Each structure stands twice: as C-alpha cells, then as structure tokens.
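Project standup — Tuesday

K.O.: blocked on the structure for the chain from last sprint. Re-posting the sequence here as requested.
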Amino acid sequence: MMVNLLIFFSLYFTVPDNNVNILYTTSCENQKKYVLTSNIVSDQVSIKEEGNTVFRGGISSDADNSEIRAFYCYENSLYVVVPEANDMGILVDLVLYKLVNDNFIYISSINNILATYAISSDNLLIYYDWNNHYFYKVNLKNDLTDTEQFFYTTNYNSKTINYSNSLDGIIYTNNNGVLIFKSSEDEKTINNNSDSILYDVKEFNNKLYLIYKNLSSGLIRISDEDQNRYFDYTLINDEHLENAFIFINELGIYAYLLINNTLKLVYIPAFDKNNANSKEVDTNVYEIFNYNNKIFYSKNNASKSDIYLIKANVKTPNVPIVDNSMIGVLSDIPASFSFSNFNQEFIYFLSYNFDIAPNESFNSVYYGNTVGYYNQNSDSQVFLFNNYFAFEREKPYYMRIRYNGILTSSEYNYIRFIITDLGEIKSFEIKNTETNSTIYTNNEMVKINLEKIGNVDKIQFSLNENFKNNNEDILPINFESDFNFILPDEEKEYIYYVRPVVFDGNNLMGGHQVKTAKITLDKTPPIKPEFITENNKEFYKDNVEIKWSEVIDNLSGLKSYKIRLVNALNEELESLVLENKKDNFTPQNNLEKGIYSFFISSCDNAKNCSEENKLNFTVIDKENHKPYKPSLIRPKNKDIINSMPFNISWNKSIDPDNDELSYSLIIAKDISFNNKESEIYLIHKLSQNISYLSQGHYYLKLFAVDSKGAESEYEIIEFDIIEPRKSTSSSGCSFH
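H.V.: unblocked you, prediction finished:
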C-alpha cells in the first residue's frame, strides 16, 4: 500500500545577492559560524559571520567562484580553494586564498593541472590530474603543499569525485560510464551500465549507496555497491534531472531530485526495495545543494535570493511542550505562544498546527487549523497571533497543538487557559491544635490556616504536586481562612500542596503560586529502652547509677524518657521526665540500705510512649576503700646489693575500713614488669628474704591488698645487683 508522504519547507535565511549558486558553512575554533554564498551571474562571493556580512566581492579576477570546492577555517582564519584560468581561459590552477580583513590574499597554488574537479571533506581536498592520471589528497592546513598521491588510474571520465572518509576511497565514473569504487588497496565495480553519470554517494554501515542516471535510457536509479536496486525512475518527454542527493540513516534511504524545476523527495523506509514512495516538495526551484546532510535550495522567483532548508523526519514527532508561563491562568493577553520538545534527527522537518476554541470539544473554533514552520535557529518555536484575533478577559480558551512529520503527526497536547487577575496564597500552615506542632498521632484535630492576597475564590488542596487524582484534576473547594481535614491512615511524612485556581464548570483553567506544608503522622511508639546496668546489681549508698542504651525513633523522633523509682513497699520515690539525649540516672538523694525497682519508658514527639522496662537493684551500707600504699625500708631506690641472700622490708599499711591486709612483692628486669624474676603474694609479715638474683638491673613493686581484693597504690623502686656473694650463714633471718 502506498503511504502518502507529508513534506514541508520553511524559509531558512534570505541572501541579499541575486542568483545564489552555492553555499558552504564552516566553524572556527572560536566557535563562530561562517556561511559562504556565490552569485552565478556576477561571480561575487558573500561571507556572513553569524548573520553579519564580513565580506562581499570577488576573490580573484581569474577565479571561477562558482566552482569553489573548499571553504574552511584554520587557526581562526578563513580560506577558500578556487580554480583559476590560464591565458587561454582554461581552468588549470587550484589556488588557495586567505581572507585578511576585507580582502582575499593569495597563499599557494597547484599549477598546470587539467582537472578542476576537487572536493573537500573535513579540510581534505581531493583532485584528479589528467596529465599524470593520479588522484591526489591535500591536507588543507594553511597552504597546498601537503599533497599525497592517492592512486593511479587512466580510466577516469567523471566530472565529480565522491570521497568516503570512513572507507578512504573515491567513487567515480570511468571512460565507459561504469561506476567504480577505488582506494589505495581495493577496486570494485559498483555499476557496470555504460553511459552513467553519478550524482551522489553515501556510506552507511560500511556499505556504499549511490544515485546515478543512465544517459541513454534516462533511468534514475538508487542502488548499493552490490547493485541491489531500491528505486528506479525513468525520465519522460522533456524531463531533465538537474541534480540529486541521497541520505542514509537507520530509518531508510532518502533522495532529493531536482527534475526540471520541481523538487521531489523519494523515501525508502527500512531499506525495503518494494516500498519506495515519492512526494513533490516544491515547484519553481532553481537549484539544490547539500551541506552537512542538509538540503538547501533556491527558488526561481523574481529575486532568486531566497534560500530554503528542507528538514524531514519519518518518526512520530514528540508531543509539543508549551511554555508553562503561557498556559493556565494568564494575567496579560498573550501576543504569542512558544513551545519545544521537537525531534532532532539529522534529516527532519517539523511543521506544527493548532486550534483555539471556547470549549474542549473543539466543535467551534476561534483560531483554527493554523500552520507554522520549524525555525532551526531557535531552541523554541514561537507563533505570533495576528492583530485581528482579540482575546477576552474572564473567558475560557482551549488550545490543542501538534507537530507534523513526513509520515505521521504527534499526539495533540491539550491546553486550557484563561486571562484573569488571580490573587495568591500568602501563607499556608497545618498545625496540631493540641501540641502546636506539625506532628500528629491518632485523633488530634487537624487544622488548616490560610492567608490570601487578592482575588482567590477557589483553591485546590492536594497530596499530589500535580493536583491530580487518578489522572483527574482535583476538584476545587471554596477559599476559607481555616478548615479541618481527616488524617490519612499510613504512618509517614506528608507534604500537602495548595494553590488558588480558576475552574470553568468541572474544567480546571489554571492556577499558580503553589504553597506547601509538611506534617508527620506517627501512631507507633518507640521501642522500650534496654538496660546496660545488670539486673539485681548492688550499689553503695553514695554510688547508685543506672545506665541504658540510646533509643532512636525514625519517624517523629524521640522526645524524652519517663522515669519511676520505687522501694520494696512499692512506694514511689521519684517520677520525672528526662530529655532524649540522657542515658543514665542517679537518685536525687542517697538511698537507704534495701531493695529498689527502677522503671523507664521512651516517648516520641507524637506523644507515643513505649512499655516500661524494669530493673531491680540493692543498696548496701558502704563502699570498700582501698588500703594506703606501704613504704619500703630496705632496699632504697637505686641501692646496690652485692651479697646474697638479701632482705626486703617495709612499713605497715593502713586500711580505712580496718580490713585484714596482705602484701604482694614483684621483682622484674623491666619497668613494665613483663620480664618477672620473682613474684610473692599473700605476705602477712613486713619483710621478705630473697635467696638469689644474678647480676643486673632490677625493678621492685610492693603493694597492699585488703580482704575484699582492693589493692593499694604501688611502691616502685629500682636497684642493681653486682657480683653477688652467697653468705656462708645458713640462717634465714634478716638483719638490719
């Protein structure tokens, strides 16, 4: 089934020169863009820098400006390559010129060649020298000296050279009219029909696609390098193919044909050879040319000065998005609408159309079937209303807008708006009347407080930022300075939204000045605190301290701990509330000897409290005190001992609690007492004999221990043993 194609064209820019022939575009390192055009009658060149003309005139008296093949930027300077004629008027030189101020200055040239058919791609120049039968590549820096022989052939006849960067090869026509692809490493016949002329070739997914014409039969064909045919068209009567270009992407093959003065589009979707469609684009066309995968053409009108750009897209266009400031409630009468969200394919064109009606059914239209065209020089599209269409205040309007592509159109975007003076909500507050906070639990009264400025009759109150419920607009309510609402069920943090609105019956026309308020609904108490202090612990009267682990409440947050202290008769001694950062309790007064119970629960900011946790403990009379440090009599600090055995003696220690005492004695070779030589514990006398120590430096530690295990502070000295001599006496007594 034949699918009708839709194609639209729009004014791209207008060149002040008549009879525009060629157009080239280049970008410089400074990000500025330049456009070059040439006039086929006067042979003059114009160059614009982002819309401003920076040059107009001839490049050289010998140059054929209509045969420019290269226009490029290098180190922020503009260059052109043009053919020039010899004294006999034959174009034999390729010359490089540089634009300096407002003149083109000669830089370098390639002389005495009989081929002027050069092309440029990414600042690369390709030409064929008929004298030595070589194709050449020139790296366009700032001269023409960087020339490389590409490959040799004596079988060249084409007037155009098509170069593929990715394949590094040239497609041309030989003397027999056969299309050839050749690189330095490969040669391939891609069409063996004689008497052919090649118009354009593109490479896609490592395959070549081309459009050519058989001069004898007048057949125009689109095929690939393997001679698979995608489109055939035979010229009839006085039809003449002026020019043709093809484009390839993943969506299929496009071709633009200028036959006589009619521009046509051929589209082969998804490379389907049985599904080629064609559509007339425009008539009275003078010339088409291609740059950066865009088709430009000039009209054969009176001035011959209009340049048009064709853009096309076979995908369904995106839905237009209208500028939010231009929809809903408008305070001023709009002079225009702006919108965006268009597709950005490298071959595309989008027109748009919209209607404005007094109702959403669009059965009567005020401003209807209006068509506008895509402006590629702007990030957003703007439509200006004509003066004869007068919007009225306080009257609802409905607009629908869509984009149009080649085959399909986008969905409509439906927009409602009204022109009115709408006030605003000045303040919005949700407060718990019991706690004067934004935190709620089970059944407190929820109260809304609103303050407005200006004309606000209706408001929307919503939990959804888009003020919709099941994709339907939330119904408005009358404005009141305060009102109540029912709490939801789910425990969580909620954000509520409110805004002034205008409704037309059940249809929301728009609103603005959204205000928000946040509340927390918390019905669940925190967990009860866990004790760090062990159950049934004994405390002395003056040293009671109970500790617990911190409790965290992730919803409304922990506020406090409730504390109760009771005695064995269940009489309440203390009841208080502690701040949430507290993690220990000490009674305000010393407790008497006995058994006690301690109760604690945790409470959050929503007044939810946990169950109590209970700890039992006992208070005893007093605390055990450690004994005082004993003092050494012998040896003294840094004494030298030279005989064995030797005696250590000390003064009696005193225990504050009159507990029974013993003494401990440790001798080591290091101050940390890790390398111990002697350890003696539970000494109940005030001296101790040491039978033998070898020569060396020693440390001695002495301390007292009471019957409850409390140790005194340490008495530590250091001493030396030198040449120890054992005593001949067998007595174990110590003399001092």
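K.O.: great, moving the ticket to review. Residues 529 and 551 are 6 Å apart (CA to CA). The chain has five domains: 16-238, 321-419, 424-521, 537-620, 632-726.
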